[in-house]
Queue: 2 jobs
Job 1
Amino acid sequence: MDERLPQYLHGPVQILWFGADEFILVMSTIFVAVIVGGLIGWMLILALLLFIPWKRTKPRGFIPHLAWRWGFVSFRHYPGPTQTRFYE
């Protein structure tokens, strides 16, 4: 069995020139923009073009933590986004 490992294990996974989370965001936005079409589709593409440079100023893992803060996902063994105190 042959498996490939990246040269630098701490480096993020890259697809084309996007990180893995950016690539998913780009593909889903383009998919929805093509289906919706018209002015709304172009506004989605414009929002994507503004979001990607802003996102690159943030640390790695920003999108999953943003989804957690908005309540879309939950992390295992981790308090919810509305809890202000946590006791182990």
Note: The first helix runs from residue 20 to 36.
Job 2
Amino acid sequence: MTLLDSLPARPLTLDEGEELAESDTVAPLTVLTADADEHRQGVYTLFVTSDGGSRASVLGFDPEADGWTVVESWTETEWTPRKQEDALAAFVESHYGDVEQERMSAARGAGSESP
């Protein structure tokens, strides 16, 4: 079973996001902070690295598919903070528009300095 298969068919709660923030391989990224239409407060995107860090991926909750999907995935040498930010921005904009959002503080992922 992969992480993608183990995620619930809904965005994560803030508590679930905080729990994942303690992981070595998963970091919550985008949190919708205010009710906007049918979207409730919670964690909507994740940054995931494979064991050993050879692959980095952004996962997002797709409300149209009612489940989590791989937004973008890179090898360790392909990944950059800019590519990650661009993938996140495009995903959030296309699925959630201009809802109020914030980033969870994570050692990895969005804005991380290591390639």
Note: Strands lie at 26-28, 30-32, 42-43, 45-49, 55-62, 67-75, 101-103.
